[in-house]
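hiii so my PI (J.) wants the whole complex modelled not just the main chain, which honestly fair. so below is everything: two entries, each one labled with what it is. i double checked the lines twice but i was tired so who knows lol
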Amino acid sequence: MQRIRLRYTKRGRLRFTSHRDFQRAFERALRRAEVPMAYSAGFTPHPKVSYANAAPTGTASEAEYLEIALAEPRDPETVRRLLDASLPPGLDVTEAVQARTSDFADRLAASCWELRLDGVRPEEAAAAVRSFLATETVEVRRQTKKGTRTFDARAAVMSLSVASGAGETAVAGGLPGGSDGPTDPACAILRLVVRHTTPAVRPDDVLSGLRSTADLAPPVPAAVTRLAQGPFDEETGTVTDPFAPDRDADPAAPPTAAGQWTAAVSEVTGQGPSGQP
Amino acid sequence: MPVESVFPRLEALLPHVQKPIQYVGGELNSTVKPWEECDVRWALMYPDAYEVGLPNQGVMILYEILNERPGVLAERTYSVWPDLEALMREHGVPQFTVDSHRPVGAFDVLGVSFSTELGYTNLLTALDLAGIPLRAEDRTGEHPLVIAGGHAAFNPEPVADFLDCAVLGDGEQAVLAITETIRAWKDEGRPGGRDELLLRLARTGGVYVPGFYDVEYHPDGRIARVVPGRSGVPWRVAKHTVMDLDEWPYPKQPLVPLAETVHERMSVEIFRGCTRGCRFCQAGMITRPVRERSITGIGDMVEKGLAATGFEEVGLLSLSSADHSEIGDVAKGLADRYENDRIGLSLPSTRVDAFNIDLANELTRNGRRSGLTFAPEGATERIRKVINKMVSEEDLIRTVATAYGNGWRQVKLYFMCGLPTETDEDVLQIADMAAKVIAKGRQVTGGNDIRCTVSIGGFVPKPHTPFQWAPQLSAEETDRRLEKLRDRIREDRQYGRNIGFRYHDGKPGIVEGLLSRGDRRVGEVIRAVWEAGGRFDGWREFFSYDLWMESAARVLPRYGVDVDWYTTRERGYEEVLPWDHLDSGLDKDWLWEDWQDALDEQELDDCRWTPCFDCGVCPAMGTEIQVGPTGRKLLPLTVVPQ
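here's the output for the full assembly
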């Protein structure tokens, strides 16, 4: 059974898509794109899709991941293109690899986030970041379905900094109708690298931590974007590409296999997702 | 004049509200046309939450038809939840469309589709948030025309003060005709302003402009007469009827939302209208005659719609789907086509007969056979004769036996409480019928794992039906009868535990009754309720019976009437009804005879297979019954040569 791993985004206004909403939209896109999915056994078979670490509703993301299992092999790039065309703009499928390794979910060990704080001066943010980082543990509280939970938001933070210069772009407002105002004088952009722990420390929790340690209170909700997700490189302190091991394991596909896939794919596109603009 | 998107301002509010995805638009198959390149612009509203409004077929059809026209634009707007409403008021964000987030006040027309009267308070919220004066008479040339459609538009009198126009019947051709009238008037430089535009629309005879009609009352509160107040405005306004459904295969590109909605399926209307003649059924009465979509037209819509949406379920909609003249071939053809594609087929609104079990079997070839729903509506032979629901208890039991024999395990039965002439015994018999169904199921299957759920709705008399004169049962009496029934079910040691019992209390039905058969004086009650915070009256968590009764008690006494006068009072033959000047095609004398037949427990057959019974629709509207069979079949979609 062929498995394909996909990277997708939640951009612009579609960042308000909840994970459940995305799942339904994605499964419909699979049907429109006529991807020959493998189905689970049982009374109500459903297509085999594994989702990992969905970003919270309202946060944008450039780096969401999922894996699909196919009943017949297909060229990953063609599948990516068909799925991208079948999803609304903003939910974009940006990368695909054939799965050649295991433990993919474990490889998503850390995330890099951008937090855009409109109405906050960069100096003000920098001071808050310094006092946050200088603190050993930062207790924060989060409202969950089971009640209020208290945990440390500091230990999982690998780095936190104020991005310098106007060259930074906020991805959260990237689509037309977004609210990015480059002329707004007071706007601080934070870069956050956080390890995936249990309980997960989210950008919101770090913002709560900044509030409790340094009284940083942005006047409008922060525009948050996940920029990357993957293994954490201790040496450089960065998040690296989770698809790299799959690419490295690719034995420069032999022509027969590639030819076979191409044939299969053209058969699918020949029937075509008709009527699609 | 450029019209800017309010999205930047709205976006800042969205992190603070529930289900923000419902406000962002961008649905698959939605359309955004350039504002400047269009000269007639419609905002289409379904006055309920997005999750209910988005799947509405009426709005979807008109949205697509209007957007297909060059120079015409249509965008959608829905009721915002109270959490966002409060924030919009605080931050000055107006009612917006979800497509381009343009302010509703900037459009030429606000078209509102009322499937139910319980959306009236939501209309006022939307008008207010849009900055449109609530009363039509206070609007000027800068405000959109507010036009109502949908089934409730057959008696728009309770909201007459808030509407510029109402359109009765099928909207497909009507919206295009209205568009042309508006376009011509704008091209000419808007001569005579808003008044002239309304006059031109009213003079077509197909658009009701309440402001051009004066209502006079008798001292006892009854209506004396309704008179057109302007020259050239007709005494009666006629409904619209689309005659060839195959010419209108909409929606071609159904909207697919990101947010979860109440119906997630590809819906195809397989026919419009119904002449079964159930006397309580407003939908059946006002949508006559029956017009079928052809089997090939249905197959085509399903094929294209599935490709455009990726939906997993197809709903074959109509008022009584098994009555399509070629339903057997439709079901078999679709089941054959999609047998290997994991596409579910559903056939809502079917009648009680064994043929429907064959259909249901066909539609669930691969799937599980969990539950079947039937609507006998009344539990005794007598009450079924009153309502003209021609099904015998033997039919029902035989049908149920077939169902159980074919592997179905759960049967759901719909009934109404509060039907004209109903006695306690008619309601209590529901328990006996459910017990007989279970007994039959146990006998056929040899097992005890059999359930029967009875679901009971309160009957509300509706305009343009033979029961439009009938007294509605009071909320207290409805509740008392349902309690007795509940006790009867509980006492049944043999079957009671296997009978599920679902019902609503009688209070919402009284408000629905007030709004259904109300006149213009009820408009003040609606406004008072809205001003006191009334919203989303179709939602149990928002509906307040007390608020409605308190508001009615403040407003209505000055007219010498009250809620009972509108609901539980029986009307006489001579009475002028608030909707008499709105022509559904039904002959009022025929309706009265059918009402008398109901009281005499006389049944009436369907005019599709018996001679015309002179309900009046076809001659009045220039229409005729359009049914098959065409004799055609659905062929396999693709033949792949090996």
